[in-house]
């Protein structure tokens, strides 16, 4: 049964996504929807059949196949975010944290959202969790500059709480545009917020990790968040689970798998 609060949260997510989408249309010069189109859409009920958020996201990821000449650069996407106030996180952030790394990366890491250090510096994963992510990337014998790193939400949630559904709804169209722009060969979703937002599921990260999922034709590997590894330790079961997941990613990318064995 759908509770009142669940319904309310779905409605806010849809409203936030729709607002972000309409603002984007406006920024790209569309200043209105022809009334006859609106009447036709309402008449055939299509706006009610597919959730606008999902419809928008589907379109965002599929657009590139339809119109490859319309490739959007990361700079264009950053520009269209502007001084974003699409959700309440905009009011409390110091810096919007867009993303960093190779715009043509074969591998993208997606985290949850900026913490205090990232908010101060405007770059994702530069605090303690970032140091742990750097260790993982180095263990894969890759450089931070080889990959692309971003988050589900671009502004710091207060007290580092997980982003709320309306915030994810406002920000995820931009994440999807980033992923469409980079078009990596694999995505690693760091932690439950990222994995659940990208895969549109509530399944816990412990059940999602360890195998590839399909994200619009791109293999997506969910794994534990680096902050979780900071809590469990650098030689914990979770740490080695992450290494197993990264081994699968390296194999998928046809990259050498460094020989690592667990310290006794
Ligand atoms: N945690 C995240 O999920 N992202 C960051 O950028 C930093 C910490």
Task: Please give a structural write-up.
Strands 1-3-2-4-6-5 form a 6-stranded mixed sheet, with helices on both faces. The protein has helices at 4-27, 35-43, 46-49, 52-66, 74-81, 116-121, 128-139, 165-182, 191-199, 205-208, 226-232, 237-252, and strands spanning 100-101, 107-111, 148-151, 186-190, 213-215, 218-223. The N and C termini lie far apart (49 Å). 35% of the residues are buried. The longest helix has 24 residues, at 4-27. Helix 1 (4-27) crosses helix 8 (165-182), helix 4 (52-66) runs parallel beside helix 8 (165-182) and helix 7 packs across helix 11 (226-232). The chain is of the alpha/beta class and 264 residues long. The protein has 2 domains: 4-66, no CATH class; 80-252, 3-Layer(aba) Sandwich (Uracil-DNA Glycosylase, subunit E). The chain contains 12 helices and 6 strands. It binds uracil (URA). Residues 111-115, 118, 124-125, 129-130, 151 line the site of uracil.
Label this structure with key terms.
264 residues, 6 strands, globular, alpha/beta, 2 domains, Uracil-DNA Glycosylase, subunit E, 12 helices, 50% helix, single chain, 6-stranded mixed beta sheet, binds uracil
The overall strand count is 6
What small ligands are held by the chains? Answer: uracil
What's the overall average pLDDT, rounded? 83
Indicate the proportion of strand residues: 5-15%
CATH class of the largest domain: Alpha Beta
Number of domains: 2
**Class by helix and strand content?**
alpha/beta
